[in-house]
Each structure stands twice: as structure tokens, then as C-alpha cells.
Amino acid sequence: MLQKTFQSTRQQMEAVRPGATTRDTRLDVFRALCLLTIFVNHVPGQYLEYLTHKNFGFSDSAEAFVLISGLAVGAAYGRKFVAGARLASTLKAWRRAMTLYVAHIMTSIVTLAIFSAGALYFGRQELIGEINIRPIVEQTEQGIVAMVLLGHQLGYNNILSMYAVLLLMLPAMLWLNAISPRLLFAASAILWLAAGCFKLVPYNFLDEGYWFLNPWSWQFLFVIGILCMNHVRAGGHLPRSPWLIGLSAAYVFISACWVQFSWWHIDFSFGLPAVLTGFDKTFLSLTRLLHVLALAHLIAIIPGVSQLARLRIDHPLVMIGRHSLPVFIFGTILAMAGQVFLFVTDKDPIAGSLYVVAGIGLHFVYAYYLDWLKEMGTARPLAAA
After folding, report:
1. Where are the domains of the chain?
2. Cα(22)–Cα(7) distance, rounded to whole angstroms?
3. Cβ-based neighbour number of residue 132 at 10 Å
4. What is the pLDDT of residue 137?
């Protein structure tokens, strides 16, 4: 009897092991690649930075991350926002937004501590002038209030705050989508265009600047991700027209040439607003938006590329993508320490590259640790049973 009970418990534990599920891992894999790329790009001045895809097109990992987040949110909330469950979905989204807000404040405080420690222990007071830290140091009381109220953001610490605002907006997005997906798309596009044309953006308190990533602009990419996921889950298909595939490939190629050969002097504005013809990241100019959508379309349409991301649930990349928030926080703290390390080594690119390689390895170690904790937490109740 005892042996049968043990065997039954073991079978239950095996059922919850990472390798025993049929979860579609593609979003996890691409999200993991985005997280690793963000880490590499957030330690500027080392060689690996030149290998990331921001050097081969108008968009970078931030656009890809927001699009993937929209797809993930569409999968998580799309079918659940129905009459009788809307309040629960709203509270769940807002609770997640609060989690992101707390994470943003925490990483900002740790960033301040890392740069202050570098200035103190290495005698490099110039560090206080980096990544928008000085206004907080010179106006401490106002700076603390501004940081808590999201009225002042440190450099490289601005993605979570923008994403938190998007989740606060999510119930309104889902409500419009329930009325009509076209209505949601139109409302989102109008807000994006108005934000870019009239510079509608949250402003900072301590200086004359504004948020680096404008949520009123970036919500459009987020909404596109939600709509695409809802369309596919409802039985729809992504367009596979040879003309559209050719246009996407041509745009990605021209974008790569534009960046590689620095064709920034070419003016094709024709008097149109900068949000339509510029390359601004804050307001997500159309050039950047089209690039990430064209790239995503090719990845989704080309079977070989998409299938490469179908990995085992216990693959290291899947683990990183599955624990995206803690891994992102971990990577941000590593990147801030890496910036101080590069600064005190006089921006030695070799030392910086070695640091980034070690940091990437630590990402995998941390993801394994998080997965181990989760597996142990699941196994204990089953073993107790």
C-alpha cells in the first residue's frame, strides 16, 4: 500500500516537471532573446553590443519586447474578459501593474546605490553625472518624490514604468476589443498619432525632459500584439501573401542598409510629422514600428524560423522567458553594475565584453535557480499528500 502511494505521488511529481508539459515555448524563447539583448545593450562600450539587432535595423529589443508582451497578454486575457469576469481580469491586470511599479522603484533605488558606491569607493564622482542621476542628488527631497511618482526616471530604467502604464490601460483596451477589434485598433492608432504629432507625453518633474518611452505611443504596438494573438486564437491566420512577404523582407533589408551605411542624412519627410517619417524611439516613429512588425511577420511566416523556437520546456532559453520579470530585474542590476565597472576601467571594451559574457551566463544560472524553486514548491505539497 505504501509503495503504491509512493509511486502515485512520484507520477504526480513527474507530471508537473518542466519537461512534461506541452506548453508552446515560442513566446518564451523570443522573450528570452529580448531580455538577453536588452542586457547586452544596457552595458554600452563593449564589443557584443555591436552584434545585437539594433545595428541591423530601425527597431531594437525594446520594440520586440513590447510586441511579445502584447501577444502574451492577448493569450492570457483575450478570452477571459467576458461579462461576469471583467472585474476579476481588471484587478488582475492592475495588480500586475502594481508589481511592475514596485519592481521599477526597486531597480531605480538599487541603481542609485550602485552608482553612488562606485563614486564613493573608486573616487569617481563623475559617475553621479551619468544616467540622469545628478538631478536627484542636487534636489534630494524633490528627487525622491519625483522618482516615486514616476516624475523622474534614470537612464536604462524606463521600460517597467512604461509597461506598468500599459497594464493600467489594459482593461479599457479589452473593453474596446469586446465591442469591436477594429474600434480598438482605430482608437489606439489615433492616440499613437496624436501623441506623436502633439507631443503628448508624461513629463518629468526635475527637468524639462519627458519619459524616454512614451506609453501613449508604445500602446499601439502593444495593442497590435493583443489583436494579432486574439485573431489567431479565434481561428484566423496571418497573411501569407507573397507580395507582403516580399515587402517585409525588402523593408528589413533596406533598414539594415540604412543603419549600416548611416543614411540618416537622407530626408524623405516631405513636410509630414516626424512620427511618420522620423526615427524617434520615444514616440515610436512609423519607421521603427514598421520594422519590428515586418521582422515579426517574417519570423512568424517562415516555418523554419518559427519552429526553431519550439524547444523543451526545460530548455535554458525557455526558463529565462518564463521568468521574465525577475530575470529582467536581475539583468538590469547586472547591467548597472557593468556600466560602473566599465567606467572605472576607463571603458575597456575587452573587460566589458568579458563582463557581459559572464552576465549572460549568470542569467541562465538565475533562471535555473528560479525554476528549481518553483519545482520544489510544487513538489512539496505533492510529497506531503
Report:
1. 23-375
2. 23
3. 19
4. 92
Question: Can you read off the three cell numbers belonging to residue 249?
Answer: 523582407
Q: What are the pLDDT digits (tens) for 89-112? A: 999 999 999 999 999 999 999 999
Write the CB contacts of 382 (distance below 8 Å, at least 6 apart in sequence). Answer: 9, 12, 13, 16
Q: What value, to the nearest 5°, has the Cα angle with vertex 234 and ends 229 and 235?
A: 105
Question: For residue 341, what are the CA distances in angstroms to 109, 118, 125, 130, 328?
Answer: 18, 8, 14, 13, 19
Task: Please give the Cα distance from 229 to 69 (Å, whole number).
Answer: 11
Which residues 6+ apart lie within 8 Å of 213 measured at CB? Answer: 62, 158, 159, 162, 281, 282
First to last CA, the chain: 14
Asked if 264 and 255 count as a contact pair (C-beta separation under 8 A), the reply is no
3-class state of residue 235 by DSSP: coil
Q: Count of residues for the chain?
A: 385
d(CA 120, CA 212): 28
User: In angstroms, rounded to a whole number, what is the distance separating the alpha carbons of residues 196 and 194?
Assistant: 5
Place of cell 520579470: 325
- pLDDT tens readout for residues 200-250: 999 999 888 899 999 999 999 999 999 999 999 999 988 889 999 999 999
Cell numbers that stand for 248 in this block: 517585409
The rounded Cα 67 to chain-centroid distance in angstroms is 8
Q: Is 83 helix (H, G, I), strand (E, B) or coil?
A: coil
Q: Which string of DSSP letters, residue by residue, matches 276-319?
A: HHS--TTTT-HHHHHHHHHHHHHHHHSHHHHHHT---TTSHHHH
Q: Return the C-alpha torsion angle 364, 368, 369, 370, nearest 10.
A: 100
Nearest-angstrom CA–CA distance, 281 and 108: 21
DSSP 210: B
Q: Which residues contact 33 (CB under 8 A, 6 or more apart)?
A: 61, 317
Residue carrying C-alpha cell 465591442: 179
- Rounded-to-integer distance, Cα 344 and Cα 338, Å: 10
- Cβ distance 284 to 214 under 8 Å? yes
**Cross-strand partners of 203:** 210
* Separation of alpha carbons 278 and 320, rounded Å: 34
